[in-house]
């Protein structure tokens, strides 16, 4: 994973930093920023792939484990610098200083947001990791597509998950990573279908084949054809990786050891060694490809992003202009400024009491809004019998009536 050369680092860094600084400015509230989302059926190996890429143990296993979208922001640190982690969700934030606590913290966060059990939630958990061993990438792990609800799950869990996935992959700025195990028929996978629906040309969809060690004997050539993009074509193509299986996890095989084993597996494989030599296999190669794809994608999205920011800026400027200039710095001028403002305000008050239109604000004509309010009041009076106290308080709840009364009083005072 550390094989990327200097020049490449120079190219990658500024892009990722730019996006991160836009994110930290809160731009995401208004604009969608480039990201990579991982989708696939339950237990297809999504979390395993993320784990191998990030070097951080994530909650995984059988059944529905990922129950909230998880945003994994990885930042490469210089060799020798310390690992750093931070988890944030809702309005909570916690710094982590040990990679081994991450899994537990995510589980706790999921329980907090989606409830203990098997429900899912739309809300995002954000996990930031900086270490010399991770690539510069931001990934989103999503709940796996469930075909049938198990006991204790809502009946429509499948639809709920699909809706959630769609929310992420519909965005033009998202690259979809479709995870498919080698031992299932790729043409029937729901995840690939969903990705194709939102991206028919396959311009921002990358296929990842997992579990090559579990491939059905006799179908290896078929897998090679898929990875060579000869079966279901995707512009971004396919990669194949081998992650830790349940047995290796039980045996506590480390992630570094797993990467060694993966390399040996592909090199020695009778069919898949060609995929290794042409650069389509292993997690480190995937990391490299993903980083490049993301940078390419960011570069492509920047003109659109710039356009959107400029438009937003124009709107904000227009709004700002409406408020006029701010107070001057000179104290004497400030006094004049304040007097002007107070005079303007008084003039507005007098205009309102006469029913004249104000220059600002949306409720232009006080008479027409009052007429409506009095109409409501009349109906209320007619319907409510003789309880005057109630009528009076309801009437005072109406903002225009209150404003009107205040202005009448004020105008009497100023005359
Ligand atoms: P997710 O539900 O898609 O996130 O899937 P997980 O990452 O939780 O993986 C499901 C199971 O498949 C786990 O028990 C993993 O250990 C296992 N698994 C993942 N990748 C591989 C692989 O390449 N080979 C083998 N044998 N097992 C794998
Ligand atoms: Mg998972």
Radius of gyration: 30 Å
Helix content: 40-55%
Structural class: alpha/beta
CATH superfamily of the largest domain: P-loop containing nucleotide triphosphate hydrolases
Kindly give the count of domains: 2
Which percent range describes the beta-strand content?
A: 5-15%
Summed up, the helix count is 14
* Strand order in the sheet with the most strands: 4-3-5-2-6-1-7-8-9
CATH class of the largest domain: Alpha Beta
Alpha-carbon distance between the two ends:
80 Å
Bound molecules: guanosine-5'-diphosphate, magnesium ion
Enter the CATH topology name of the largest domain: Rossmann fold
Provide the succession of SSEs. Answer: HEHEEEHEEHEHEHEHHHHHHHH
Indicate the mean pLDDT: 81
Summarize the main sheet.
Answer: 9 strands, mixed
- Tally the beta strands: 9
Keywords: Cytoplasm, GTP-binding, Nucleotide-binding
Organism: Oryzias melastigma
Domain Dynamin-type G: 30-303
Protein name: Interferon-induced GTP-binding protein Mx
List strands and helices in order, with pairings:
Layout: H1 6-24, E1 35-40, H2 46-54, E2 70-76, E3 84-89, E4 92-96, H3 102-114, E5 125-131, E6 137-141, H4 157-169, E7 174-181, H5 190-198, E8 205-210, H6 220-227, E9 238-240, H7 246-250, H8 255-268, H9 273-277, H10 283-322, H11 331-353, H12 366-383, H13 388-397, H14 399-414
Parallel strand pairs: 1-6, 1-7, 2-5, 7-8, 8-9
Antiparallel strand pairs: 2-6, 3-4, 3-5
This protein binds guanosine-5'-diphosphate and magnesium ion (MG).
């Amino acid at each position: 994973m550390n094989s990327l050369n200097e020049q490449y680092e120079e190219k990658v860094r500024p892009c990722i930093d730019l996006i991160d600084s836009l994110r930290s400015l809160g731009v995401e509230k208004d604009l969608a920023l480039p990201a990579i989302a991982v989708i696939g059926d339950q237990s297809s190996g999504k979390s395993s792939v993320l784990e191998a890429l990030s070097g951080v143990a994530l909650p995984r296993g059988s059944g529905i484990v990922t129950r909230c979208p998880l945003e994994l922001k990885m930042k490469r640190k210089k060799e020798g610098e310390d690992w750093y982690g931070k988890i944030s969700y809702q309005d909570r934030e916690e710094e982590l200083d040990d990679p081994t606590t991450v899994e537990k913290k995510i589980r706790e966060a999921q329980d907090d947001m989606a409830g203990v059990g098997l429900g899912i939630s739309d809300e995002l958990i954000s996990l930031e990791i900086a270490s010399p061993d991770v690539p510069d990438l931001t990934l989103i792990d999503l709940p796996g597509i469930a075909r049938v609800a198990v006991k204790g799950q809502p009946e429509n869990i499948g639809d709920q998950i699909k809706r959630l996935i769609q929310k992420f992959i519909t965005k033009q700025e998202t690259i979809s990573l479709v995870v498919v195990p080698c031992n299932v028929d790729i043409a029937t996978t729901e995840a690939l279908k969903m990705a194709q629906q939102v991206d028919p040309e396959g311009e921002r969809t990358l296929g990842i084949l997992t579990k090559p060690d579990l491939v059905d004997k006799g179908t290896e050539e078929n897998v090679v054809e898929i990875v060579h993009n000869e079966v279901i074509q995707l512009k971004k193509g396919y990669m194949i990786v081998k992650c830790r299986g349940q047995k290796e996890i039980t045996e506590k095989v480390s992630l570094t050891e797993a990467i060694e084993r993966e390399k040996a597996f592909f090199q020695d494989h009778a069919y898949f060694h060609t995929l290794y030599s042409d650069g389509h296999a292993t997690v480190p190669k995937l990391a490299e490809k993903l980083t490049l794809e993301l940078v390419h994608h960011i570069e492509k999205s920047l003109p659109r992003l710039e356009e959107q920011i400029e438009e937003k800026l124009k709107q904000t400027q227009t709004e700002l202009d409406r408020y006029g200039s701010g107070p001057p710095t000179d104290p004497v001028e400030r006094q004049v400024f304040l007097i002007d403002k107070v005079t303007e305000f008084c003039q507005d008050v007098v205009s309102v009491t006469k029913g004249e239109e104000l220059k600002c604000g949306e409720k232009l004509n006080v008479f027409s809004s009052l007429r409506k309010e009095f109409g409501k009041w009349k109906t209320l009076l007619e319907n409510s019998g003789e309880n005057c106290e109630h009528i009076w308080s309801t009437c005072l709840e109406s903002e225009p009536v209150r404003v009107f009364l205040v202005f009448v009083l004020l105008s009497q005072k100023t005359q």
